[in-house]
Amino acid sequence: MGETAPEQARRCLENLQAVCEAAGASLARAVRLTVYMTDLSEFAAVNEVYGSFFPGHEPPARVAVEVSALPRGALVEIDAIVAL
Known about the structure:
Oligomer: single chain
Low-confidence stretches: none
Strand order of the largest sheet: 2-1-3
């Protein structure tokens, strides 16, 4: 899972990328992502990871929400809406 928010964000985005590919799409076709974080002070570090998944073009719309807790003690959770 990763111990830091950026590590967990990378893993979330890798997982989303794999799901997109399994569906015959790509993360580049994402329309919107929602990033849930337990500590928004980590936003800049997570944003750097986020940007690395969308090189060469503008990243999709995004919402970042601070939450009090996530399942299994996670620091970051990301969901996506992707055009197929």
